[in-house]
UniProtKB/TrEMBL annotation:
Name of encoding gene: ndhE
Broad class of enzyme this protein falls into: translocase
EC number: 7.1.1.-
Any single biological process term in GO: photosynthesis, light reaction
Superkingdom, taxonomy of origin: Eukaryota
Subcellular location as annotated: Membrane; Plastid, Chloroplast thylakoid membrane
Identification of the protein by name: NAD(P)H-quinone oxidoreductase subunit 4L, chloroplastic
Catalytic activity: a plastoquinone + NADPH + (n+1) H(+)(in) = a plastoquinol + NADP(+) + n H(+)(out); a plastoquinone + NADH + (n+1) H(+)(in) = a plastoquinol + NAD(+) + n H(+)(out)
Any single GO CC term annotated in Swiss-Prot or TrEMBL for this entry: NADH dehydrogenase complex
GO molecular function terms noted in the UniProt entry: oxidoreductase activity, acting on NAD(P)H, quinone or similar compound as acceptor; quinone binding
Subunit comment: NDH is composed of at least 16 different subunits, 5 of which are encoded in the nucleus.
TM region positions: 6-26, 33-51, 63-84
Length: 103
């Protein structure tokens, strides 16, 4: 089994981060924006773990990654609840509509 080198880990994390930013900037749908935000978090987690392996301190990066995953799960649950509420009332989840939260 082949292991990923330090440079490959950072490049992969940066690539996932850039794809997430691109998806977040270009998306008009709320659910797609939330998925892009999750991709950004995954890129950050991969970079944290790669950097913690460089300094021979695996536990710090992995523990911090668990906190990021917990925050991402809470963010996803809250964001989806808001998106479902808006969809029930307005029948649309488009971000570019500015009057969605006005009742």
């Amino acid at each position: 089994m082949q292991q990923i080198t330090f440079e490959q880990g950072l490049i992969l994390g940066a690539y996932i981060l850039c794809v997430g930013f691109f998806g977040l900037i270009t998306s008009k749908n709320t659910v797609r924006a939330l998925m892009s935000l999750e991709s950004i978090f995954n890129g950050i987690i991969l970079n944290f773990i790669t950097l913690s392996n460089l300094f021979d301190n695996r536990e710090t990066g992995e523990i911090f990654s668990l906190f990021v995953i917990a925050i991402a799960a809470a963010e996803a649950a809250t964001g989806l609840a808001i998106a479902l509420s808006i969809h029930r009332n307005r029948r649309s989840t488009r971000i570019d509509q500015s009057n969605l939260l006005k009742w």
